[in-house]
Give the backbone structure.
Amino acid sequence: MLSQQIQASKHPPELVVDVMMAVQEHYGYLSDEALEEAAAMVGMAPTKLDELATFYTFLYREPVGRYVIHLCDSVICWMDGYEPLRDHLCKKLGIQMGETTPDGLFTLLPVCCIGYCDRSPAMLINKKAYGPLTSEKIDEILETLRSEAAETTPS
Amino acid sequence: MPKLIIDNREITVPEGTKVIEAAERLGIMIPRFCYHPALGSVGACRVCAVKCLEGPRKGIQMSCMIDAQDGMKVSTTDAEAVDFRKHVIEWLMLHHPHDCPVCDEGGHCLLQDLTVSGGQGVRRYQGPKRTHTDQHLGPLVAHEMNRCIQCYRCVRYYQEFTGYEDLGVMQIGSRVYYGRFRPGTLESPFSGNLIDICPTGVYTDKPSRYRGRRWDFERRPAVCLHCSLGCHVTVSARYREVVRQEARFSESVNGHFICDRGRYGFPYVNLPERPRSARVDGTETGWEAALKIAGERLESAAWKTGPQGIAVVGSARCGLETQGMLKRLADAKGWRGPVFDIDPAAANVRTAVSRLDSDLRVSLREIETADCIVVVSADPLNESPMLAPALRQARRNGARVAVIDPRPASLPFQFDHFPVAPDDLAAAMAILIRKCADKEPLSELGKTAVRSLRGVSDGADIPDADGLAALYDDLHDSRRPVIVCGTHTAPPEIPGMAADLALLLRIAGPRAGLFYVMPGPNSFGAALLSDPALSFGDLVSSIEEGETKALVVAESDLFGSGIDWDRLQNALNKLELLVTLDYIDSQTTRAARILIPTLTAYETPSLSINNEGRVQQSPAAFRGGDPIARTGGGEHPPRAFRRDIPGREMGAAWTALPTLGGRNPGSAPVNLTAWLGDAHPALTSLPESSDFPPDGVRLPLAENAGERFQTDRFSHGEKEEDALTLLVADSTFGTEELSSLSPILKELTPSPCIQIHPEDAAEFDLSTGDAVRIDTGAGTAVLPVQTTDRIARRVLVIPRHRDLDDRLPRERRTVLSKTAIRKATEDA
């Protein structure tokens, strides 16, 4: 599917971000090897891909948890109580920004605006947006995700 | 032409000039970090802020981003602008470490200068700084990312200007990181320029670490001697050693940059094995005394055998003074020579020099403005590296670049490659020439030329003949085409055909230019001053026949010639006297009966002529003498005190040569330019050394019209179906004579290999990684195979390598039979 798209493109480098997203979808994150694989697919130097991969928030160059929490770190969310929510998340998960829980379930990352300002403070977990958030709502969401994970994970 | 006022001074500048450049013309240096004339403006650093008081825009503006316009009134000293810049510097310094005392850039750091001059000597920010992990970038460039101020110069230079993609900019915001995908040696052979271009100490010169501060060095301008382009460099010397070289701006030659071969090729000056004392019959002797003995022995040899029993030999790395003095000596004494063409390509160079015309030739910088370039029988990156970025700039400006060469050419930009076998190169050129002759009225060339051109074979039997015909159409439709022609491995008819093509294009319309690439730094001078009637091969034969009994060899390694080593060694053994003057340790200096050490071009003023006939002057960078590392026997200066400089007795080769002729050294001519005019009429008009223009003097050249359109060039002979052609090629590092002695570049020298087309390889059951046993005619070598479809069919390419020197044919092109190569198996 991906290779078809690449073949159909007159200028494969234009698909570089899509290719990296697809490769990330497959491997979970963009390891050096995955990045090289993506580079070969679009015929670009790995450095050029790394330039993009390290620039974009949603491309991960390190292993991430099953649920990647992107807490919005932007002006509107700041006004509506971003900081206590951040502290609550960190405390609840027992990790700092940029870290992954030891059980590999959650990764906490900041993101600069997800365009959900009308329902700020907001966060994005695995492409789903949540907001406006409160500490209680966050607890609820985390609990739901935990039980969802427990259900789908073979013991 | 807009007229504007900067700091109350009026100036008129060409359309499109940025305010920062206009100010520079007035001598006002507006601070800058990201702006660089070769890279243009990006407005990233914000430190070039000025205040526009009147004109189309008002208020604080970035002077690198705005074009000079009529009616502008700009102040660089306005309080608001000064305050703005001050704050910019303060924020750029936010994360910058306080490591100036231990930083290698300290003392020649733009950031340091601007911080101090901007009044930011004391830091207000006391918080934690962002830090980075550095990468290993190879033997040349040291990396220290904490010092970075995110100006983007390095990446713009590396990716945009030279076209390499292994150094990039990662991350975002304050985490911006310049580096490689994985740590490792930088791929670009122009990576040393990162050191010059970085406004602070992120990239510093690794080989010269801990060797001194900028102000400790004797710094002088010089001309690079590691290929024929003659790029400009600045030499830093300390303790009688060359420590570092930097690029020096030249309007006509290299622009702002140099290649790594030129930057790090210098250590031959400092090598412990460099001959520093004269030797007569194996015994160390004083320099003057040795010269005197040599003079006496030469005189007695002349008395015994007649002056024709003595011959003089130089090379393309001799300065023009030495070449001129060799000729003067030979003429005055009736000795044979001088022979400079020890390089097998010398005949090609002679053709090139005779065909180059003041009107036709272009300089390296002018190539950047060409709109269609045909490179024939040259491998720019490996033969004259700085030609590659020049071609790239032309490509960036929209030019088409085509390379007609059998070798697997690689260039850092998109180009068309016609991998034509050496035997077919003339036919490929004939296609271009014939198409021109078919289309244009050529009556002005005369009947013979027209007849010979019309008779040019159409070359249809060579691969991709249609592509070449289409290339001609592009040449014809361009405004400023340039023909770049190599001489290293070119068949003898090619340099002349390149000139023919350029001439024909001129008749057809476009203002075609011609650019030859030559093997040595002063090949041009060698071609002008050598004795055309005597080749080095003839000279060796005459030694074998006993006609030549004594040889004077100045700054030349005869073993780099086209003569088989055993034959040459036997011939040298037959000589009654071999006097060698040189500054490197070579087989020739070791074979010498009398060895006279000489000064390098770093220690004595010297002239050389580059590939376009530009005479350039290099003053002495330092006075020479034994390095303190040597006299002190270690790192410390010696404890014994003396008033003179040890090892300063020796002089330049050209000052020694008159004594060999029996004259006393005092009579060496003082007025160089006058006697160089005697050596060759083209050299008559050279200015005095004090008036030498920074970009040198272009010799007035007149083409030898008698050599135009020689019919025999265009008829290519029958091809031997079963034969393979072995090309002994150059590589960027490790093949040029002087730089191949550099320990710094050793790590970058590729290991020996043989390149072959995959289909030819299949015939011998070979693929990449296999070992092949090849009988080159000069010896047998076992080499790893590299297959590449960018190489011409039926061609083998072996880049020259020190480890292979004794087993490669001395000629650049050799025809081998198929039986000469076979797969090397484990048990064989």
